[in-house]
């Protein structure tokens, strides 16, 4: 409890300081003033809870100080001390909201009783106010949750038709857009890191701050919801009656800069095409999500509007290589039970999830690649309860595009499976390994080489050639040639491509050599085979 002592006599200050055991009571004298003007300045600066003041002082007397406190709505309780027993002073002081009036000389017991009573009343008032604030906060929190749940039913799950939505919205005092509106999805990136670093792990406080920031940016009358199925996603219904559609780009950029300034987080934002009817809310939400997920994960662009191509899409480069290697190693592991160098799979996983690789992928592409990887692990079976929990966690992280958490969950699944793999069975089944290699050759027959196989499957070339022939029944070159010839025959039968074009397509840069190999394989030149095949088809 904070006290300000006001008297023009220094001895009174010393007496009051000595009379009361301030520290033992948990009270504190925060300031001493020697006239009314000084008291007013300190009251504004220090915001004391209780002011003990004399009546007669230079500059401004005690009654003047009381009048100023009354006019400025200062919350402090004032106890007046005076050597005058004049009833007029007493009456005036109480008219100006004095808490109590004591005569000098000050009696210790009387002063302590009055101060104690004032402190108790202040604490009760504070508690009552705190209770009212808490009660209002709980009610408001419940109303906000009901608003969010209504949005979920209308836009995400599509459980409400237009009439039901209007009725429910009216019951919850939600003013739905009247006329054209745009649905905007706002995804907060690195939310988990910020929650830990700046909010001490308190997710609710962070989300409250994020909602307030968005609401302040777009305006109090604009509807803002939180998607309760996502970790950090908010949805805005921007009415174009209040905000013309021409302002949309600047509004979204303002939202991005506000998040960086006040929350220190980055955003990805997707906006739908304008809609006229609220019945199109679910479609608008889907468009906004699609626009958002078209942005590259690590790209500089943060805003995408449905139907408008981004530069990210125009300059897109697919990071296929790393994901193919992860899938190939995983296929080898799941097919044979183990790997020669288990760390390679985990290293390639980290590479596929690296910032450099994510920067080249849109959220849609990343979700597809990560989901395919997870599906292979899930389909392999043999999961205990812990692994099933990890699978669910990874699936949720992929849907919410939480890349680092998804990587950790998938890595944990892989590590557990690698540990459980028996060392006695590692790579003992050559046929299973060669089946995986065959799948790779089938996918890459146009340009695959022996060096590629040796590098990707981490095998000596001579060992691979020997193992391939003993398990498949023909050499690598024979198998590859047969694969290319089968594709060549299909193209001759079903297309109008010229011979040199087909040769190049299946992996031969020299048309003459291609024709020699084709004739050796089929007994006919490519042109002869095309005529023969079409005659047979007739």
From TrEMBL:
Key words, A-Z: Cytoplasm, DNA-binding, Phosphoprotein, Transcription, Transcription regulation, Two-component regulatory system
A single GO molecular function term of this UniProt record: sequence-specific DNA binding
Residues of the HTH araC/xylS-type domain: 435-532
One annotated GO biological process: phosphorelay signal transduction system
Domain (Response regulatory) ranges: 2-119
Gene3D superfamilies noted in UniProt: 3.40.50.2300, Homeodomain-like
Any one GO cellular component localisation term in the record: cytoplasm
Name of the protein in question: Helix-turn-helix protein
């Amino acid at each position: 409890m904070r006290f300000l002592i006001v008297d023009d006599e220094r001895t009174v200050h010393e007496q009051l300081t000595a009379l009361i055991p301030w520290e033992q009571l948990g009270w504190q004298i925060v300031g001493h003033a020697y006239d009314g003007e000084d008291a007013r300045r300190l009251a504004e600066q220090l915001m004391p809870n209780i002011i003990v003041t004399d009546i007669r002082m230079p500059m401004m007397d005690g009654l003047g100080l009381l009048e100023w406190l009354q006019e400025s709505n200062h919350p402090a309780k004032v106890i007046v001390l005076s050597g005058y027993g004049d009833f007029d002073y007493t009456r005036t002081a109480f008219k100006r909201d004095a808490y109590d009036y004591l005569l000098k000389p000050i009696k210790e017991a009387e002063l302590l009783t009055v101060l104690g009573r004032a402190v108790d009343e202040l604490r009760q008032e504070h508690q009552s106010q705190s209770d009212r604030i808490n009660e209002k906060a709980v009610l408001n929190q419940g109303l906000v949750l009901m608003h969010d749940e209504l949005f979920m039913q209308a836009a995400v799950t599509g459980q409400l038709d237009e009439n039901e939505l209007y009725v429910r919205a009216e019951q919850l005092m939600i003013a739905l857009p009247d006329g054209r509106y745009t649905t905007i999805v706002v995804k907060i990136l690195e939310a988990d890191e910020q929650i830990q670093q700046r909010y001490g792990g308190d997710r609710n406080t962070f989300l409250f701050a994020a909602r307030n920031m968005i609401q302040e940016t777009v305006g109090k009358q604009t509807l803002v919801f939180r998607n309760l199925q996502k970790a950090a996603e908010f949805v805005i219904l921007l009415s174009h009656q209040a905000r013309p559609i021409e302002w949309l780009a600047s509004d979204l950029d303002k939202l991005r800069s506000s998040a960086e300034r006040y929350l220190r987080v980055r955003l990805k934002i997707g906006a739908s095409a304008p809609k006229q009817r609220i019945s199109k809310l679910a479609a608008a939400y889907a468009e906004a999500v699609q626009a958002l997920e078209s942005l590259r994960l690590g790209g500089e662009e943060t805003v995408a509007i449905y139907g408008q191509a981004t530069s990210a899409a125009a300059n897109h480069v697919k990071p296929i290589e790393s994901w193919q290697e992860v899938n190939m190693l995983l296929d080898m592991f799941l097919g044979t039970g183990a790997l020669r160098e288990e760390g390679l799979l985990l290293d390639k996983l980290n590479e596929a999830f690296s910032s450099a690789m994510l920067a080249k992928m849109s959220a849609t592409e990343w979700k597809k690649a990560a989901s395919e990887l997870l599906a292979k692990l899930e389909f392999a079976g043999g999961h205990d309860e812990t692994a099933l929990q990890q699978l669910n966690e990874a699936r949720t992280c992929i849907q919410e595009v939480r890349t680092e958490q998804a990587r950790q969950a998938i890595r944990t699944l892989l590590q557990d499976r690698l540990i459980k793999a028996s060392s006695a069975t590692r790579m003992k089944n050559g046929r299973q390994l060669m089946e995986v290699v065959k799948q790779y050759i089938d996918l890459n027959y146009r340009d695959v080489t022996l060096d590629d196989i040796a590098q990707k499957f981490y095998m000596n070339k001579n060992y691979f050639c020997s193992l391939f022939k003993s398990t498949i029944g023909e050499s690598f070159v024979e198998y590859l040639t047969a694969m290319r010839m089968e594709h060549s025959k299909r193209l001759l039968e079903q297309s109008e491509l010229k011979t040199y074009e087909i040769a190049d397509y299946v992996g031969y840069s020299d048309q003459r050599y291609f024709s020699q190999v084709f004739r050796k394989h089929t007994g006919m030149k490519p042109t002869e085979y095309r005529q023969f095949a079409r005659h047979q088809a007739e």
